[in-house]
Specification:
Elements: E1 3-12, E2 15-23, E3 27-31, H1 38-46, E4 53-58, E5 61-65, E6 70-71, E7 79-82, H2 94-98, H3 114-120, H4 136-149, E8 154-158, H5 166-182, E9 187-191, H6 194-200, E10 203-208, E11 211-216, H7 218-221
Parallel strand pairs: 3-9, 3-10, 7-8, 8-9
Antiparallel strand pairs: 1-2, 1-4, 4-5, 5-6, 10-11
Length: about 230
């Protein structure tokens, strides 16, 4: 599935996000320093922001087109978005969070069921729990499961492992790899970690100062000779 960002422009205080590109990878990393526009790009695609100019198309569906006056509301885009904090509903149980939006979802692929998703993410024992009682890693897995169960055409992950300690990040990476391998949902994956890119992604878009600084395959951009150039923190 192709995501086309045509002459997209969004002012962001001290910089302007400007993109004119197409993304076709199964899992594309959006990589770059803090303040380069990574999260803002996801918000544009999800419909949480409106650009000043340009268009966004997912396959043959126009989601945003400023010139044509087209703007599909977020709930009608069939895009799953997992923000950094997971954004679970604290007054709902894990099961209720997972099933939020499930009934109104578009026709779902075979196997995209509550039982299958909770099995892949190993959260079946948590279904009756209150979300405030969950650990950080459990909350991220529930948030990911909720996004999947809405049967998205595209999944947006905004630094899903940020804020977790190294051992927990290493334990959660295999869950993300299982999601990649078990469900045919293309993903955009925002991260600061070259190791996460190498483990999960098949293509990389590097942003710096709101523009594309580089793009290519992880092995090309993060080989030893190139890696220091793209070692971003914070």
């Amino acid at each position: 599935m192709t995501l086309t960002l045509s002459q997209l422009r969004l002012p962001l205080g001290t910089l302007t996000l400007e993109l004119d590109t197409a993304l076709t990878g199964r899992v594309t990393a959006i990589f770059g320093p803090s303040g380069s526009g990574k999260t803002s790009l996801l918000e544009l695609i999800a419909g949480l922001r409106r650009p000043a100019a340009g268009a966004i198309r997912l396959a043959n569906i126009t989601l945003t087109d400023v010139d044509a006056g087209t703007f599909v509301r977020p709930e009608h885009r069939a895009i799953g978005y997992v923000p950094q904090d997971g954004a679970l509903f604290p007054h709902l149980s894990v099961r209720q969070n997972l099933l939020y939006g499930f009934a109104s979802a578009r026709p779902r692929p075979t196997g995209l069921t509550l039982e299958h998703v909770t099995s892949v993410l190993e959260i079946t024992p948590l279904l009756a729990r209150a979300t405030p009682s969950l650990s950080g890693g459990e909350q991220q897995r529930v948030a990911l499961g909720r996004a999947l169960l809405a049967a998205p055409r595209l999944l947006l992950l905004d630094e899903p492992l940020a804020g977790l300690d190294t051992p927990l990040r290493e334990r959660l990476l295999p869950y993300l790899a299982r999601v990649r391998d078990e469900f045919a949902v293309p993903m955009l994956y925002v991260t600061h970690s070259p190791d996460e890119v190498m483990a999960l992604c098949d293509s990389v878009l590097v942003l710096a100062n709101g523009r594309v600084a580089a793009r290519g395959r992880p092995a090309e951009l993060f080989q030893p000779s190139a890696r220091p150039r793209y070692e971003f923190r914070g």
